[in-house]
Every structure is written in structure tokens, then in C-alpha cells.
Amino acid sequence: MSHHGVEDANSETRPLLDGLNVNTQSSFHGSGAVLSGYWPTPSPRSPHIAFGSGTMAPPLVGLRPGNADPPAERETDQDRGFVGTSARKRAKFTLPFIIISYFMGYMPSMVIMNPYIYDRIAEEYNHRINTSSQVPCGKDMNNVTGNATAKGIQEAIERRVSTLELYLSLTTYLSAILPILFLGPFTDKLGRKAGFLLPMSATLGKQVVYIIVIMRELPLPLLYLAHGIEALGGSFAAILSAMFSVTSDVTQPGNERSGWIAVMEALQTLAASLGQVIVAQWMRFGYLHPLIYALAFCCLGLFLTIFVLPETNASASRNGLNDLTTPSDVNQGRCFGLVSTCWKTVRTSFALYGSKSMAQASSGNNLRILSKRRLCLAIFILTVAVNFSRPGVETLFQLKYPLCWPATKVYTFSGLRIFLSWVVILCALALMQKLFKMADRHICTVGIISSILTNAALSLSVNSVMVYEAAVVGVMTRSIIPMLRSILSSLVPQDHQGAMYSSLSCVESFGASVFSTISNRIYYVTLSSWAGLIFMIFACIMILALILIIILNVLFVKETPRCQEDQRQSGNIQADREDQSA
């Protein structure tokens, strides 16, 4: 294969590496990766640079740590030049269409679930008092004192709906943890396409079960089957893991990667919000046709993945799929070896965040990187706890008296809010990165503050205007997770990107199940007293995340002088060598 891709990837660092005779070795034995946050990249014009030949050298001149203050911010990682330029361009072009297709097909069943369950349960009550999800409040509720009977029926319906939704969510998210956990490492070995095909097929199966249940008006417990099928494929979290792995394969670390991660995160969110708005308007005329439309998009996504998307994992494209064509006895042994290797990779992905043995064997710089990873993971968990728990209780909160929003308005507002938020985020991201040279962690801080304000405002909302105001102050909330992904990506070796994103997706799935359960029960208990209490709790959680991001910023600021001193020392060593050779 041509080395043009290598030359392109190293065009920035090559002049700084030429002439250096440096011995480097991975501190993470067996992985061939350096976990210190500095990725020495070989230069074609410096063949005497040997990897794995001794002890780890100090950071090279010009190699800068990820997400440090400018100009030390532009990080580098291990070379990805084995993926051809044409394949990278085709992947960048195809991936957005695959993501749009998947989330346009994924959202209809998610939007329909709550109002469909609400309508089926409301049929058991007096429709003269409480009609359906489209008219959740009776006329008497508009009185100053309200109608105690109507409010009691509405709260009883909401409690049953929230309980069934909780169990359905647990069926999906808890069962999806193992598939998510192994799918990322498998894509590192077999290729990225597997990371798309399995969750897409499972989502397709879920839509089929939903269609059958709605067409035949079958018992609601059959929906557990639909969510169980989706869990086998890892659900949306597995798609996100594959999406960000491909993004890391075809981008350089730094502003390019963080920009692409933000764009892809925005794209999947915009596609989901657009699908949500369409289905919210469409379901006024029935629940069946939106699900058929979802099937068509799922099939389109499968077609694009199989026939158009190139393989971006170079090692998998050379070796992974070829293993399947070997004789059965050899193939069986290789499959066992593959499973064993993937299990080791799974353990490695968690060791990157918390291995005591790795920390004891690491250099001081690696210990600082390990601390940064742990802080990023903690902030990520807290953000997931809020972002994945809020939608379910927010829907019930808006349906409830005194807001009494119909389901169509609830989901239309939610979709438009997400869409407009990402438009603002993308514009603000370009402005903050290009004009103000803000690092990813600074943008993350802005997002956390925005999340605190919007949750605090929503907890006090008693009318529609206050809900709209809460949405305005929370416009930057969704920038937190993509910025954290970018920071972590710059702190993890290239050959463990899939495992890293898989671990984050596992955290998302596990967090969505655990934290949504807790928030659901809190809302259940406080429904009659202060339904907005759960949002104030969310604000307090994000205050804790704000404290952690401040600590992370301090670590990066403290490391900048160290990096400059290391660069000066390395430059002095090089000057001494040149004097000696002269």
C-alpha cells in the first residue's frame, strides 16, 4: 500500500522529528501504544527512529498534549495512514447518511411508546374525565381549585405509564450492556461494519414487533419482546460507538477530530429530532404508518452500510474478514482466539480508567493522563445520569397539570428544541474554536453551566412561558458529551479507540437504565407534592460535574509549563548531540 497517507498524516510533525534519534517504548505492554498522551509518529525521512526498543523517551519537540492551552493544544496520536485517502473521503461522505437513516428509523417507536401506552391505559378509565394523551386534562382542571377526581385519575395513569416505561427501558438498556461491551473490541478486530449491522438489524426487528402489537391490539407486555430484540444488538449506544470509532479512524486528533465528533453528534441528534417532530404530527392520525416509515429507513441504513461504506479499520480490512474464509478447523481456533483477544481488549478499556497496577508501573506523565481520564469519565457519568433520565420524566411533567400539554405538542417542542440547540452549538463551536481558540474542556464547562441553569429553571416552571425560558438557557447542554468524547479520544491510543468508545457506550446504556430508574421513582413519589423536584436534583448533579471540570482544567493548566520545559530539555539534548557530532 502507498505511504502517501502516512506522509499526509505526519506533514505537521515531520520537520520536528527529522534528525532525532529517540528510543520509545509503550508503557502499556502488548498494545503497541503509548498511554502518556504523546504519540510519537514515525517520519518516512527518519528511518532510524525505532519503536519499542528501550525505555520511554521524554516528549519530543513539537509533540503537544491533547486539549492543552493554545498553542499546546493540538494533540497527535498513533498513525492512521494505512487507511487510504479515498477510503477516508468516502467514509466521511457515507457515514452521515447512515446515521441519518438509522436515527430516522429509530425514533418512531421511541416517540410512540409513551402516548400509545398512555392511550391503552386511559381506556380503562372514564374518558369523560381524562380522554387520551392528546387531551390529558379534563375541563374541570382549569379551575382554580381543580377537580380532585380528574387529577387523581391523571396521576394514576401517569404512575402506571411511568412504571411500564421503566421496565421497558430496563429491558433494553440492561440487556444491551454485554453486546455493547464486546461490539467495540470486535470492530477493532473484524472491522467497523459489524458495529453498524448488528444494532441496525435489531432495531429493525423491534419495529416489526411494534407494528404487529399495534395492528392486532395485542397485550402491552409483548412490547418486552421488541425491546429485548433491540437489546441484543446494543441499541443506539452500539451505533454511537461504531460511529465515533469510524470518525476517529478518518480524522486527525485535535480540532479536526473534536469538530467531526461534534458534527456527527449533532447530525444524529438533528436526525432524531427531525424524526421526532414528523412522528409527533403524524401520530395524531394513527401509530401504524410512522412505524412503516421507520422500517424503510432501517433498510436504507443497512443497504448503505453493506454496499457503500468502506472499511476504515486498516488491520481488520487486511486480516479480520479473511479469517472467515479459512478451513473450519483453523477458523474455529481463530474464532476462540478472537473472543479471547476481544475479552482482553474489554479489560484493557476499563484498565485505561482505573488500573492500579498500570498506574504503579507508569511514569509520572502517565499518572497525570490517568487522572484526566478518570475525571472525564466521572463527568461523563454525571452528564449521562441527567441527559438520559430527563426526557422520560419531562414528558410526564409536561402532560401533567398545570401545563397539560398534548403529546403532539410535547414531542414537537422537544424535537424543535433539540434541532435549534444543535444549530446554535455548531455555530458557537466554530466561533469559540476558531475565533477565541477555546479548548474542548472550556466548551464543556459552558455546556455544564447551561445544564445547571435549564434544570433549575424547569423545576420551577408552572406555565408554558417558563418552560420556553428554561429551554433557551439550556441551549448549550448537549455540547458536553461530544467534547468529553474528544478529550478522551486524544488521551487514548488509536488502536484502542473502538474499545474506548465501547466503554463509553456501555456507561451510557448502564447509566440510562440505573439513573432513569432512580429518577422515575423520585418523580413517582413527588408527583403529588412537587413534580419539579427531580429537575432540581439534576441541577445539583451538574453542579458536581462543574466542580470536576474545574479540577480537570487545573490539571491541564498545570501541565502546560511541564510540557514547555520538556520541550526545552529535549531541544537542549538535541543541540548537544549536534555539537558532539560536529
Automatic annotation (TrEMBL):
Q: Does the keyword S-adenosyl-L-methionine apply?
A: no
Give the membrane topology, semicolon-separated if more than one. Answer: Multi-pass membrane protein
Q: Does the keyword Repressor apply?
A: no
- Subcellular location(s) of the protein: Membrane
Kindly list the GO molecular function terms attached to this UniProt entry. transmembrane transporter activity
Give the compositionally biased regions (Basic and acidic residues): 71-80
Q: Sorted alphabetically, which SUPFAM superfamilies does this protein's record hold?
A: MFS general substrate transporter
Sorted alphabetically, which InterPro entries does this protein's record hold?
MFS (IPR011701), MFS_dom (IPR020846), MFS_trans_sf (IPR036259)
Q: Where are the transmembrane segments?
A: 95-118, 166-184, 196-216, 222-246, 291-309, 375-393, 413-431, 443-462, 530-556
Which region ranges are annotated with the description Disordered?
A: 1-22, 62-82
Specify where it is mainly localized: membrane
Q: Where is the Major facilitator superfamily (MFS) profile domain?
A: 94-557
User: Keywords of this protein's UniProt record, alphabetized?
Assistant: Membrane, Transmembrane, Transmembrane helix
Q: Which Pfam families match?
A: MFS_1
Q: Name one GO cellular component term.
A: membrane
The protein here is known as: Proton-coupled folate transporter
Taxonomic lineage of the native organism: Eukaryota, Metazoa, Spiralia, Lophotrochozoa, Mollusca
